[in-house]
Write a structure and sequence with these properties.
The complex is a heterodimer of chains A (114) and B (112). Chain A is an all-beta fold and 114 residues long. Chain A is 0% helix and 54% strand. The mean pLDDT of chain A is 92. By secondary structure, chain B is mainly beta. Chain B is 0% helix and 57% strand. Chain B has strands at residues 4-6, 11-14, 19-25, 30-38, 45-51, 54-58, 61-66, 71-76, 85-93, 101-102, 106-111. The A-B interface holds A 1, 4, 6, 31-32, 34, 42-44, 46, 49, 51, 91, 93, 101-108, 110 and B 32, 34, 36, 41-46, 49, 88, 90, 96-97, 99-100, 102-105.
């Protein structure tokens, strides 16, 4: 299957700092990218959907000013958690949809806010 | 009521058993159906991807979609300890911009 990478895989930061997570589709162009959040032993929670060159569409209850999404190209999307707090600690996973509509996930980024 | 309901599990089977994982859904507009496998602390991995009704086989995995019953299944033959993971069903309407709706996952343990 196609490969989606995420960087960093793990980040620990102090409360109040901002954290940027990169998501790249390595061997295909992604028409759409998605950002999910997952708490332990729970399913994926969609945060936002982004298309290259346009603003992201956020799910209800997700603060767009706190979770900034930039979809700079067909192979790169970034999620910035601004002024992170301990309650933002979670597993963040990006996903990219290829032109044939298959959807592939990155390996995830574990964020811990102290 | 959730749009997608997945058998919650957890499921524990002996090595070599046939495993059946199931999801039901309520949205008749769903056209694309996926099964993902997620190991602990990893991102989901796409296992099977089907469009509309029917069966699809890939090695030890078979995906079935019955749109008339709004029911999908994933069968795993000759299950192995390495199959131990959480399995997520997902489905989507037939639009390029449509988001996928996921089940809550079934955790499977295959005991040697």
């Amino acid at each position: 299957g196609a490969v989606v990478s995420q960087h960093p895989s793990r980040v620990i930061c102090k409360s109040g700092t901002s954290v940027k997570i990169e998501c790249r589709s390595l061997d295909f162009q992604a028409t759409t990218m998605f950002w999910y959040r997952q708490f332990p032993k729970q399913s994926l929670m969609l945060m936002a959907t982004s298309n290259e060159g346009s603003k992201a569409t956020y799910e209800q209850g997700v603060e767009k000013d706190k979770f900034l999404i930039n979809h700079a190209s067909l192979t790169l999307s970034t999620l910035t958690v601004t002024s992170a707090h301990p309650e933002d600690s979670s597993f963040y996973i990006c996903s990219a949809r290829a032109r044939n509509n298959e959807q592939f996930f990155g390996p995830g980024t574990r964020l811990t806010v102290l | 009521q959730k749009e997608v309901e997945q058998d919650p599990g957890p499921l524990s089977v002996p090595e070599g058993a046939i495993v059946s994982l199931n999801c039901t859904y309520s949205n008749s507009a769903f056209q694309y159906f996926m099964w993902y496998r997620q190991y602990s602390r990893k991102g989901p991995e796409l296992l099977m991807y089907t469009y509309s009704s029917g069966n699809k086989e890939d090695g030890r995995f078979t995906a079935q979609v019955d749109k008339s019953s709004k029911y999908i299944s994933l069968f795993i033959r000759d299950s192995q300890p390495s199959d131990s993971a959480t399995y997520l069903c997902a489905m989507r309407e037939d639009t390029n911009a449509g988001k996928s709706t996921f089940g809550d996952g079934t955790t499977l343990t295959v005991k040697p």
